Amino acid sequence: MAQLPCDNDGACLRCKAKPPQEETLTCGTCGTPWHAACLSSPPETLASTLQWHCPDCSGEIDPLLPVSGGGSDLVAAIRAIEADESLTDADKAKKRQELLSGKSATDEDDDEEEGKKSAGGLDVDLLKALGENLNCSFCIQLPERPVTTPCGHNFCLKCFEKWIGQGKRTCAKCRSSIPPKMASNPRINSSLVSAIRLARVSKSAGAGTGKVFHFISNQDRPDKAFTTERAKKTGKANAASGRIYVTIPPDHFGPIPAENDPVRNQGVLVGESWEDRLECRQWGAHFPHVAGIAGQSNYGAQSVALSGGYEDDEDHGEWFLYTGSGGRDLSGNKRTNKDQSFDQKFEKSNEALRVSCKMGYPVRVVRSHKEKRSAYAPEAGVRYDGVYRIEKCWRKVGIQGSFKVCRYLFVRCDNEPAPWTSDEHGDRPRPLPNIPELKMATELFERKESPSWNFDEGEGCWKWMKPPPASLKAVNVLDPEERKTMKRAIKAAHSNSVNREVMEVIEKLKNKEEDKAESEEVEDASMEEKAESESEENCETTEPEEETPVVTEEAEQPRKRAKLDIDTVVPATMLESGMK
DNA sequence: GGGCCCGCAGGG
DNA sequence: CCCTGCGGGCCC
């Protein structure tokens, strides 16, 4: 039988009676009153009633651990490294990387050693060194099935063919002419494929940082959110997302660093804002375009959106109280019900937040206070407000009535100044209200103690010291067979002419590849000095059905083109082009 | 200004 | 496959 607290009027939700004061217990955590007689295990001593925690709050959080990281052994091992005082920070980082790459590089005979070496960080710089020169000018990402023009510029095969399909015969980057032979029969630059892959795999082995994630079919999407013909009404109400510009995986925790921002190479900065949730999604700050919590119940939560739409929320800028999702009746077509009509539970995304609380993961926060614009969200649109940690989570009866909601205390923990701390918004410092959970958090702050964050005295800020778990779905991990193909191609590439940048990479990689040679035909790719002009063209979208034979094809399965009829797409950015 | 309906995307 | 979700424009 479920145990229930008292409602707002003090009546026990189980026996319906209003218990006398001596039979009422107040939870030391959430402050909710309970009827002692209706508890399955009431406290036995008077002393224990003083420090009593209700069934909702005292319930042990399951020892949930990230599923892909290898479980508690791995975490224990990492903790051991962190605790080892004989190691410098750099040593620790190195050891963590070794640990993680050793886990992910499973049984790979002679490749194992190399895998660990490349995890050391050298290769991470290689791709970076190549810079944007490698990127496809259309989709601004590393090319998929790259083709290289005689002038030395690289494009995705798909993007290139679309370009050609529009009758263009000049390089989209430098306007040099494209030979008819290449236009009619573009060939994959397989040595470039290899170089990109190897660089990616090296990056992905770098435990948590520098991972690059490519959204499937991303290059087919337009710059902005778009609607299809099937969407009866116009505007973004029924829009699908536009292209994702950043290369973090969807389950990436914490800030979005520059290396995952191939477009601007600056990362997503605190205070950046976007027109709406769809645009915010394109920059990776918060992926769901309706839901407020991005997270997985067995893994953690990556981000939350504050819109001011929940009565129970309190936004104080540096900290805020957040209400979980659910508990509202959204059945039928009425999707705007703001009244709680049943209890929220720690499941799904609410559970994801609880995992992040327990593990101490950083949570990105975006604000978009539409209804009640506040000092903390003064502008229209959606703003990225940096990284918070969840100091505490609990359940309590919501202010609306007798239904329980999940609540979370978020506390700002990065050291970048938030917009509201500037003079412009001059609303800090302000007296903090006297609520128990905040008191606890501020005390922890003052004592510089936190369950899962460390206070960095040197920099004077809180830092999240635990390494993030490996990504759930990194699509950029190669299987052993692919890897061998790649090695062969690299050998072969040795005798072919490729971009100068690519040559450099291969040169460096070559030093590590001492095993047997095995020649292989490589598609031709020519090189020339590179020109500097910029193209403003976008990646036009038409439906290509080509499946050109390719030497080494990416293992990604093209995701079902979910009900998305590209031919009927009408993004604003495309109206000028020759779309039918 | 609120109700309503539409849509996509993601979790499970 | 089903369900849910701190969007968003339009219609009344």
Q: In terms of topology, how is this protein built?
A:
Blueprint: E1 24-26, E2 33-35, H1 46-50, H2 55-58, H3 72-83, H4 89-104, H5 111-118, H6 122-130, E3 146-148, E4 154-156, H7 157-165, H8 180-184, H9 190-204, E5 273-274, H10 277-282, E6 293-296, E7 300-306, E8 314-315, E9 319-323, H11 348-359, E10 363-367, E11 382-397, E12 404-412, H12 436-446, E13 454-456, E14 461-463, H13 480-493, H14 500-510
Parallel strand pairs: 7-10
Antiparallel strand pairs: 1-2, 3-4, 5-11, 6-7, 8-9, 9-12, 10-11, 11-12, 13-14
Helix pairs in contact: 3-4, 6-9, 6-14, 9-13
The structure holds a DNA duplex (12 and 12 nucleotides).
Describe the model:
Residues 136-175 form the RING-type domain. Its main location: nucleus. This is RING-type E3 ubiquitin transferase. By secondary structure, the chain is an alpha+beta fold. Strands 5, 6, 7, 8, 9, 10, 11 and 12 form an eight-stranded mixed beta sheet that branches. Helix content is 24%, strand content 12%. Helix 3 packs antiparallel against helix 4, helix 6 (122-130) runs antiparallel to helix 14 and helix 9 (190-204) packs across helix 13 (480-493). The N and C termini lie far apart (63 Å). The model is unreliable at 59-79, 96-125, 201-209, 421-431, 471-503 and 512-580 (pLDDT under 50). It is built from 14 helices and 14 strands. A hairpin with a 4-residue loop joins strand 13 (454-456) and strand 14. The chain is elongated, with a radius of gyration of 27 Å. The structure holds a DNA duplex (12 and 12 nucleotides).
